[in-house]
Amino acid sequence: xxxxxxxxxxQPIEVARDARVHDLALAALRSxxxxxxxxxxxxxxxxxxxxxxxxxxxxxxxxxxxxxxxEFIDPPRAAVLERDLRWVFRVLGEQRDRDVLLERLSLHASxxxxxxxQRELTRQRDRAARAVTRALSSTRYQRTQHALxxxxxxxxxxxxxxxxxxxxxxxxxxxxxx
Length: 178
Hints:
mainly alpha; 74% helix
């Protein structure tokens, strides 16, 4: 696991021009899982808020991918992963909200006495950070990461006869725009 340095942001997803939906789903999920993996240790340490933020972004991306490509994923597997990723997203959100509030509050430190509010938010943030550490060290989180890795393997070995990604995406976009 990577910790030293900056938090890992998602990289652009690249697929061949003639890629199939299956290829797109696999590349997108691989990117989200990598973003989560590379930020887990930093988020667990709780020192830099950006790790929590980027891990949360990765979990949200994975949830969107499960919904978007649901027709290509075993429904019971997708349901369990969706539930566990929602849990991760919520736990991380408690700390992220406090981090953002503290950052914004510090911008107004010279205008008013914010010390009491800052102390309370810091207390809440520390409690949320301990909950993040527990969650990311838990068996449930390990199971979630293993389930995501297993889904990547299944998608990697699946029948590649899905429709062309460009045609599929265009059809979906037109439907949503209507």
